[in-house]
Amino acid sequence: MNTRATSILMMIFEVLAVVLVVFTTAKIATAYGKSETVMKINTAEDLRMMIDTLAGVPGEALVKYPHDVGTFSFLLRAGSISVFTKGENEQFWVVRKFSLPDGYQVETEGGVIEKVQAVCLEKNHKKILLRPCQ
Fold first, then answer.
1. In what order do the strands lie in the sheet with 94-97?
2. What pTM was estimated for this model as a whole?
């Protein structure tokens, strides 16, 4: 077999493989950038920082999360905030951990918060409560 023809065919296949890998990577990156997962990560991280801030604020406070979160569900446990969609497997939940000073407690009003447009974090003495906003 002609070695020159073989090397040209191999070069064409290599170029096609590189183009396919670049195209697939770009497509995945674009989909991930617009995905619900990124929104859940950002929301969980924002709420974690808000909880840390409330723990450092003296007195009582009420903070409303500034974005529409109607597609998400929330669960605030001791040491972590979970953001997920209803019916989603727990392995796909976005969980962010935080630490509070001694004596502080956290809880979610009514257990899990689902399908509310806005959520609030309320600090009352040494208790931080995640609840739907009015």
1. 94-97, 80-84, 73-77, 113-114
2. 0.73
